[in-house]
Amino acid sequence: MPRTTDQAEYDGPPLPEEVTGQELDRAVINQLKGMPEKLAARVARHLAAAGMLIDEDPETAYRHTLAARARASRIAIVREAVGEAAYAAGHYAEALSELRAAKRMNGATAYLPMMADCHRALGHPEQSLKLAKSPSVANFAPEAKAEMTLVEAGARRDMGQLDAALRTLELAPLASKSRSSWVVRLRYAYADTLEAAGRESDALAWFHRTNAIDSDQLTDAADRAELLEKRMA
After folding, report:
1. Which of 11, 52, 219, 229 has the most CB atoms less than 10 A away?
2. Which residues contact 120 (CB under 8 A, 6 or more apart)?
3. pTM here?
4. What is the 8-class DSSP label of residue 13?
């Protein structure tokens, strides 16, 4: 007999034999310890498989997390995994629902930037701005704070508020000496917003500043700078 949708979700994608579940962080494994051993092992294997696939095949990773949720829906780390995989696969409504559930369970605020970006993707930038103003954001680590800044600036742009988007980005550490990816992305967003606002000379300077620290070529800042130079010549 063909499997029903619920049955197929419970089954999940085939598990690679080499995935044991021990690949997970110890803190994650500890959260599964209250479950029967065999059940915990199966959930762990689905979570580990999802973690391995989330960059190259987010849809299959998402299906692995659904199989984990079908067995352990009351465990926060499982709901978090579903939310993150749904986000990576572009299922933004599902991602928002799952991240909200995880936040209710463990009170964590680390999900806020991703939740805010889900609101943007769903066409609700004003909800993104509400999350960006959450008091806990002030205590975020620099990388997480940068993520929220990027979402907030994007939400401002969605609403046609270019000047407000620029002000948001200008409050971020654009001149940081760090070459971390979050600094690269902040600079790129600033350059892109400057160009959208018609400030081409400033945009060109910031595309160059982005490219100067983008050793991993996370952005197309060099190409954008070249196009601007041709246009301004």
Report:
1. 219
2. 128, 151, 154, 155, 158
3. 0.90
4. S
